[in-house]
Amino acid sequence: MKKYNAYILLVFALVAASCNKELDRINVNPNATENAQPDYLLTGAIKSTVDAYWGTTNNMNSSLLFVQHWAKIQYTEEDRFIFSNSSFTSLWSTGYSQSINAFNKLIDLGPKQNIPNYKGVALVLRSWTFLLLTDAYGDIPYKQAGSISEYITPAYDAQKDVYFGLLDDLKTAKASLDPAGKAIGGDVIYNGNIARWRKLANSLRLRIALRISDREPDKAKQVITELSADADGYLADNADNAQLVYLTSPQQNPVNASFETRDDYRISKTIVDKLFQLNDPRLPVYASKTQTTTPQEYVGVPNGLTNSDASNLGFAKTSKPGAYFLAAQAPAVIFNYSELLFDRAEAAARGFTTENAADLYQQAIKASFKQYGIADALATTYLAQTAVQYDAVNFKRSIGEQKWIALFGEGLEAFAERRRLDYPQLTASSATVLNGQIPVRLIYPGTEQSLNGASYKAAVARQGVDGLTTKLWFDVN
């Protein structure tokens, strides 16, 4: 033990006196294998990334509240937008310290082991991880990220450059994916189905093309035109949904894990009211009946209540999210077929393709119903309502509102799309602390100011104050 302690002291002395690039060589677990098995590495990286994406900090305690899918029934500070620069560390720390590092390792391992499909899958997943990060924070380390031997304090890239880079990365990823190539293991999303990974790569490119469409319409159209000519196409049905299906405890869905020990959340009154208004048969899927019988059976909680006002509503008289979402094995959805169809509808509405926007819009709603096992006949009745019919004059409203409903539970994606499409138009409670505004980004972790100060300051100078109400580059209106 004395020798080990002496060694540690020596290491720190050397670090203080030598080049910082030695950090990657000393920051090594001596008990870990030096030769990672790609199948285990892939499973672990997927699990840690999806847990962060679907978990408490980035989903239940922030984005699901911002889009008013969920609300808080106690400890309502987050629902009133009371956050600090330590509130949003999870997505950042997991993304950079675990996800991107692991995917980079797989990108390197794949060709070395003569299994290039690992590289392709890892590039798709790394692109998705970077997309989550830039959608949430704005400017982020991208080009220099994940290379600690070269960049201990990586520069932040402008959001436009990140999106453009990801479009190229996904194109490279698809070229690396060969359905006839060597099989991969550890794929807990598509079970090694490379054809589906190719579709997901294209679908993510479509998502990003629309993300930039208000700022860079020519680039968006160019990408979508290229995708329209691609024989591999996009997700083709709900069987192609990219999702992680969880297991039982202790590998259960993070939502289920939270509700095992806490009872902080209810479905938002905003979406309950909308579902009632539209006679939407997804209501009993999205919401649970109140424990105590109430006239409406499903009762949402208004967002942004004080603790006392929320408590006065009563735990038993308000609706939790639906049993589907509370189940241990509930899937965490990365990309679903309904979103893909809404994206294609929007591309057509913008004139980027010659497809029929109204027809694709209807298909998107039907796909959302099928995702939850709701009969086609109910979808037909639903679509016949005037309030649901597609409005070509204001496609952002039609697509935005229905996409918001279809993305229920997918907090970060719903958050990005509501900011981009500006629908539904939500109202903040008078008890919130942002003068009537709803957050439009996450705050950078406070550790960035102390550990990567120069890069952080350059990003803030370019992007704007590091606050919840600073609009990101893609968020035009």
Automatic annotation (TrEMBL):
Pfam families in alphabetical order: SusD-like_2
Superkingdom, taxonomy of origin: Bacteria
Signal peptide from the UniProt entry: none
Keyword check for Lipoprotein: yes
Record keywords: Lipoprotein
InterPro entries referenced in this protein's UniProt entry, alphabetically: SusD-like_2, TPR-like_helical_dom_sf
PROSITE patterns assigned: PROKAR_LIPOPROTEIN
Protein name: SusD/RagB family nutrient-binding outer membrane lipoprotein
Organism, as annotated: Sediminibacterium roseum
